[in-house]
What we know:
Helix content: 40-55%
Number of strands: 2
Strand content: under 5%
Radius of gyration: 19 Å
Strand order of the largest sheet: 1-2
Distance between the termini: 24 Å
Mean pLDDT: 95
Shape: globular
CATH class: Mainly Alpha
Largest sheet: 2 strands, antiparallel
Amino acid sequence: MNYDSELEQSLRYLKSDQALKALSNDCYWPKWNSPWWQMLLLHEMDLAREIPGKTLSAYIESLNRMPLKIFPIHPGELPEGVDPFRGTPCHCQLGNVYQVLASAGVDVDQELPWIRPWFLRYQMADGGLNCDNDAYLVKDETPSSMVGTIAAFEAILLHTHRPWTQEESAFLQKGAEFLIGRQLKRGSSTRHNADEREDEIDWLKPCFPRFYFYDVLRGLNAVLNWAEKTKSKIPHAAIQDVVQDLDRRFPDGEIRIERNAFRDSTTILLSSTGEWIRRQPAVFFPLLQRVSEVGEVSPFLSKRWGEATKTLSVINPRFTSLTGL
Length: 325
């Protein structure tokens, strides 16, 4: 896969005044071609260090300008006049923000000290999180979300350059138990989040970039990294179906992209009159289109699978029997 031309185009854009102006307007929108989405893709390509310093600074400033730095759940927590879509972030957004900036060399805890406590604050009883505000008001079940959990779990797990606090260790323990309990592939059993069960088939299909999406390879890497870092054990039965399925479908270790998770998406666009308009057709930048082609071997997903199989053999030799590697 040759994407040099498209990569150079994205890097030029991120260095431009146009990108800085976009960040002055909004740190997130529009999907899927604002500076944020291009930065996030570079991170997933292991190129976060290529993000220009002035763009990182502008992005941090844009995040810190957000009017609300809590996840509004209860009546009155969203101030009058604050747009619920643009005025406050969500868990999966901040989980990815933390990872991108940390990978780019930013001291996230210093520059954005409100992000790390956010993850701990909004973890649900079963170890998951949910970007649906109303899920936190449900009393008779815990409708947590795989998508809402994975990025926050990755952020705390992979980007802490000091010993974890007791609270962070507990967060990771509960988060790992949540992912393992779902066998990396099962949707919520709750009524409130019943729609998530419809995603189970899609989760078996690797996608790239993942952005805020989930697939079983992403979940597998997360729990294996947790087990290796914490010297914890993973029940054989919790991951065997996922590992064996990936090994069966990709016996040469080359992971092919099997779905485009963002196709047909809409976005919020800034009009010429300065008004943000919802449900507009999304525009995709060339690098995103190039590296997300269904059917193509993804060197990035293949690298993650290689890391997973290596970690499997390290944490427990018994796991090598799950694959033919």
